[in-house]
């Protein structure tokens, strides 16, 4: 321990642009945030990346061997490669040497490694991946979970997601009175598929969950909800669609704005405002997905993470640790329906 | 019969802005398209709307009494109100007095009325609602189905949707070799929930369906697919999310572009280009959802339809009739797996 700074184990080998961008992001985080980074991976490769940043602060390197490839089946691969970077990073948390893990590698492997090395929280059947989206209302994000960990869900899983999401919204996103919605295709309680109808009843009955009703596709980004629960199939479709749509809009702007002489002039004049638009639409500034329900703080970065995104992911980890989100979730678990 | 023009029965009483906007759309359609409109609803109200358009062409009014309200349970309401506008419109198709129905009213009621009055096509277990989205590639839309009729689906329903979608893409959207995708959360055949995994096998095995693999959320608007099948829960979430996102993006542009002196100048200079952007992003120009699998051509307009949208919906109906999409679907049905 010694230092009171949050210590984040960064999986330097995971992600499409690893290790260069990951190390770059770690440096940025160490410079900008009050955190201590542990870089987990192949020391030689990490050293080579660090050498590109001569003014970078000193960072501890924790040696690991190999990485779980995107094409590998997570559980057998994790067993076959006990020294893989994600395994080593999780062990650092288990041993109390780090407070959180950040990885932009194989998300299924990160989830499986967290389950194998850290285990589930008591009362949680399935951990969920939560993603934070910006909404129409600036400064008021919405947490959507699950966005991909559990494709076939039971109602009680969604109740667990709702409870964990409530705590996260309260203590990390700063919603004093979070409004929890159930992703559904209509407003009425009897709308939706079997899962939604049964989940609606559970959420309605749980006093610890500030359930405000169904959230239709059109309401997700309205700012009317702080937490939206759904199964990992619907959530993943939504997440990936949302990510793509931002890119499509920017593409349409790029194609249509500069058309003609007036277009070229207008674009020059609006340069600054267009940059603001890009940053509001672009997903890159938002910091990774959270793994909720395991006995440790884990942030899963996008596979295509660059240094900027990685730094945001480290910030998410720091916020979760500083706000003691894990303890808060543990305290709330007795409110769950019996399994 | 007599005339070779397509005859479209328009439910004048259905929709948030009925009957004024619906009648307005019908007039626009009759003026711009080579169709014959039958206005179904309360004659007095329709006459009053027509009186607002003194130069409008003459249109036949088919009297109906009452409308299915948004809050009503469709099937009992349809039985209780046999003369409701949607019932009368469907009967016109059944009796051969109209070639298609267009309604912006209660979509569940339109679907139920089609089932009650027209029936299903042989071999189709469940009709689907299909929505056409613009993609990244201009002039190359994608048909997503089901977007809300069937919240809990079996694999064979999705196979049926895929076959109907293929025919629609070929004969109405003009895709010579449609590429059919299965909405899913990963590219590999073993990814997804139970429904997706089993549907993947059926689609792969059906030679009549040009299945090209899984379509992730990020791929829906890529232009890589002409048809995307999914259950009505995921599809409805996607549809409503997409509709809302267009509005949010326009809102961001509206907020950010005119900021500062340079912003105001730039917006003035770019006026024309911004209008092009609005029309590419805005959903209003796209013409209603299709009800596929019933024994008649039915187009379901958005509840908030205005005259513009209604006119597009009539155009969709016209295209479906002129391209004999119903006969083409019937011809293709023997290609389905046995029930």
From TrEMBL, chains A, B:
Name the UniProt record assigns to this protein: Phosphate acyltransferase
Pathway: Lipid metabolism; phospholipid metabolism
Family the UniProt entry places it in: Belongs to the PlsX family.
Gene3D superfamilies: Isopropylmalate Dehydrogenase
Complex and partners: Homodimer. Probably interacts with PlsY.
Keyword Transferase: yes
UniProt-listed GO biological process terms: fatty acid biosynthetic process; phospholipid biosynthetic process
One Gene Ontology cellular component: cytoplasm
MF (Gene Ontology): phosphate:acyl-[acyl carrier protein] acyltransferase activity
EC numbers, comma separated: 2.3.1.274
Pfam families membership: FA_synthesis
Catalytic activity: a fatty acyl-[ACP] + phosphate = an acyl phosphate + holo-[ACP]
Keyword tags: Acyltransferase, Cytoplasm, Lipid biosynthesis, Lipid metabolism, Phospholipid biosynthesis, Phospholipid metabolism, Transferase
Gene (UniProt): plsX
Known role: Catalyzes the reversible formation of acyl-phosphate (acyl-PO(4)) from acyl-[acyl-carrier-protein] (acyl-ACP). This enzyme utilizes acyl-ACP as fatty acyl donor, but not acyl-CoA.
């Amino acid at each position: 321990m010694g230092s009171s700074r949050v210590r984040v184990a960064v999986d330097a080998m995971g992600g499409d642009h690893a290790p260069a961008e990951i190390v770059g992001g770690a440096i940025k985080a160490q410079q900008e945030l009050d955190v201590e980074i542990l870089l987990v991976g192949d020391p030689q490769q990490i050293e080579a990346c660090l050498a590109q940043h001569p003014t970078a602060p000193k960072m501890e390197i924790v040696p690991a061997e190999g990485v779980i490839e995107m094409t590998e089946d997570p559980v057998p691969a994790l067993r076959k490669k006990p020294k893989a970077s994600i395994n080593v990073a999780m062990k650092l948390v288990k041993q109390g040497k780090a407070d959180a893990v950040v990885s932009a590698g194989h998300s299924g492997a990160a989830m499986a490694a967290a389950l194998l090395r850290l285990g589930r929280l008591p009362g949680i059947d399935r951990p969920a991946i939560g993603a934070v989206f910006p909404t129409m209302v600036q400064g008021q994000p919405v947490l959507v979970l699950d966005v991909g960990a559990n494709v076939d869900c039971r109602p009680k899983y969604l109740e667990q997601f709702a409870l964990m999401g409530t705590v996260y919204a309260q203590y990390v996103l700063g919603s004093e009175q979070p409004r929890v919605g159930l992703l559904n295709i209509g407003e009425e309680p009897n709308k939706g598929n079997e899962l939604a109808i049964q989940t609606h009843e559970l959420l309605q009955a749980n006093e610890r969950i500030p359930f405000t009703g169904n959230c239709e596709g059109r309401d997700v980004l309205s700012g009317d909800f702080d937490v939206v629960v759904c199964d990992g199939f619907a959530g993943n479709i939504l997440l990936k669609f949302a990510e793509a749509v931002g890119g499509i809009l920017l593409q349409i702007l790029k194609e249509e704005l500069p058309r003609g002489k007036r277009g070229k002039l207008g674009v020059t004049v609006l340069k600054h405002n267009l940059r603001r638009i890009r940053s509001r639409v672009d997903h890159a500034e938002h910091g990774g997905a959270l793994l909720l329900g395991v006995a440790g703080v884990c942030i899963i970065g996008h596979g295509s993470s660059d240094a900027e995104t990685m730094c945001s992911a480290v910030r998410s980890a720091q916020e979760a640790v500083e706000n003691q989100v894990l303890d808060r979730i543990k305290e709330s678990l007795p409110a769950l329906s019996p399994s």
